[in-house]
Amino acid sequence: MNKKIGFIGCGHMAGAIIKGIIDSGLVPPENITASALNKEKLEKTANNLKIRTAASNFEAAKEADIIFLAVKPNIYENVIAEIKSLFLAGRGEDKLVVSMAPGKTFNYLEGLFGGKIKLLRIMPNTPAMLGEAMTAVCGNEYLTENEYNTLIMLLKAFGRVQEIPERLFDAATGVAGSSPAFVFMFIEALADGAVLKGMPRDIAYTMAAQAVLGSAEMVLKSGLHPAQLKDMVCSPGGTTIEGVTALEDKGLRAAVINAVRAVCDKSANII
What we know:
Shape: elongated
Number of helices: 12
Radius of gyration: 21 Å
Structural class: alpha/beta
Strand order of the largest sheet: 3-2-1-4-5-6-7-8
Number of strands: 8
Distance between the termini: 35 Å
Strand content: 5-15%
Order of helices and strands: EHEHEHEHEHEEHEHHHHHH
């Protein structure tokens, strides 16, 4: 892909996406430029991934064909104010802007830019670093079909992509964007249970993580409902149904549902 990409912000999520893009071979590292307030972290990421750095957000955006806004939602207004001159009076009409922020709608973003900006909203997650992201996407009306397809191809370089309407973005933040943290907690808890029963921690982490990985693959590839797959493990009167009963007693399902709901509510009320 003969495109130049600018990242405004270079935190964990941006770093994961950059690594995923580079590892895919779709865009060479010299075509990627990043800016960030934390210069020490920026330089560390740049050295690790061999990308270029910019002294300012404006500089990172100026030469880029695709601009990723990878900063915290609470500073979007300030960051866009720094680069919006690139888009005014018909300038920058070929630049594509990718927003990674929860809660920032097309109407909000277009208002900050003050014009007809070509926007793609995405909600990725950190497994992008391994090419295993789950990224929700939605494009605004100003993107051409070719531009949209180019962005989708870029996102597929680091994982699976799901197109959704904008009204579902808060839900996507809960079920995909934030959920790796929940899964890591579950893996840690599984390992702790094994450690309680005498297993060395390193072995427990490996076994728990592989069990979760394999189970996820079964959901994606078998086409069976998760409940059917669960039932296949639960022999009548067996050990697994005892564990399932213990989880139900402690409200596992309700706890997970409420965690996703909490993320959605937070996303919907970000200022």
